[in-house]
Amino acid sequence: MDPRTLVDRIDEKSCLDFLSSMVRHKSYSQTEGERELARHMAKEMKAIGLDAELQPFDEGRRFNAIGKLKGSGGGKSLLFNGHLDTNPVTEGWTVDPWGGLVDDKFIYGIGVSNMKAGDAAYFCAVKSLMDAGVKLKGDVILTFVVGELQGGVGTLAAIHGGVKADYFVNSEPSDLKAVTMHAAALSFVIELTGDTRHLSKREEAVDAIAAACDLIPRIDAMTFRNAPSEEHRSINRAHVGVVHGALGHDLEEWRPPQVADFVRIKGSARYAPGQTEADVTADMSEALADLEKRFPGLKAKLVPEKIDGRPLMPPFEVSKESRIVKAINGAYERVRGEKQPTGAITPTGYYGTDAGHLYQELGMEGIVCGPGGRYNTMPDERVDIPDFLDMIRIYILTILDICEVA
């Protein structure tokens, strides 16, 4: 069967049903539901004839589902990577978050965009090839990992367990764009210490809340030193997500007539390959020194926040001339009849993904490209049905290009 016929004949209903079945698993991170979905994926991979196993880590409390379609030899191997754990449901949903609802435009559910649609797309791509009787030279490895939301601990466990290939596709939601670079994710804490007075003597105080209000928009506007290019600088970003201000380090709130003398700020900074944590902290330290000049008597302290057991999500980069990039570009053009947007594309370029671990730990060339994105992390999270189905087609053609028909 020629590739055009193959992609035209995918079983669309079966693919949507499979994704719906994944959505119906409540796979919150670090729960029994996460483990149950991993078991489900291993079972489904075995059912279609893949070599599949559950890979335990964290003293057996968590496990990944790993499958392999063994090639005949002589072709390059391709690894697909995606996580099964999801964020929690927020307020504002109008559909069942675990119903797997499909209407004439979308498929809905918590985690369907981030990133069960990507997971299902590469499973369905491999199943479609197997159903059509296609034999490959190179191996295809499917990794359904957990713990991405804890810094990628599942993918690191897979790597340390021996999982590797010549190339990889990370299926994080990019709205089918080919993301060749994304940032590292660094958490930070800033503590501002002022000098309190009663509001009657406010002019004598050093107001930590006023200083925080001055600082936060400056942080939100920051980029960082030593960016190798403007494209790299384009994925620099800092953001403040938590602000607590009151009296003392215990943040006593019962005395609002007094000027707040302590603020604790928590946020995240994103920096590109070629930049370092030291670059980020140097620039932020300069910003805090300038703040102290604007607020005489203020003391400002920066602390990069290391969460126990959670690794730093490293940056990722691949040459636009890499074979995997060219393969997915060509597949996209054949399916959609237009050039694929490629590069450090935002908002995906601001993400932290497991692609960074595959790139840093194994030196693998890969691409971040998956369905979903525009309705990510919002009430009624959903994925456009045409995007999901086209992603399956693009993955099929990418597998044929990289692994080659035997």
Can you describe this structure in just a few lines?
The protein has eleven helices and 16 strands. By secondary structure, the protein is of the alpha/beta class.
Report on the structure:
- By secondary structure, this protein is α/β, with parallel strands linked by helices.
- It folds into 2 domains: 3-181 and 315-403, 3-Layer(aba) Sandwich (Aminopeptidase); 185-304, Alpha-Beta Plaits (2-Layer Sandwich), CATH 3.30.70.
- It has 11 helices and 16 strands.
- The strands form 5 sheets. It has a 6-stranded mixed β-sheet with strand order 1-2-5-3-6-15, with helices on both faces. Strands 10-11-9-12 form a 4-stranded antiparallel β-sheet, with helices on one face.
- A hairpin with a 4-residue loop joins strand 1 (51-57) and strand 2.
- Helix 2 packs across helix 4, helix 4 packs across helix 11 and helix 6 (208-220) crosses helix 8 (277-294).
- The radius of gyration is 24 Å and the shape is elongated.
- The two termini are 13 Å apart.
- The relative contact order is 0.20.
- The model has no long low-confidence stretch (mean pLDDT 96).
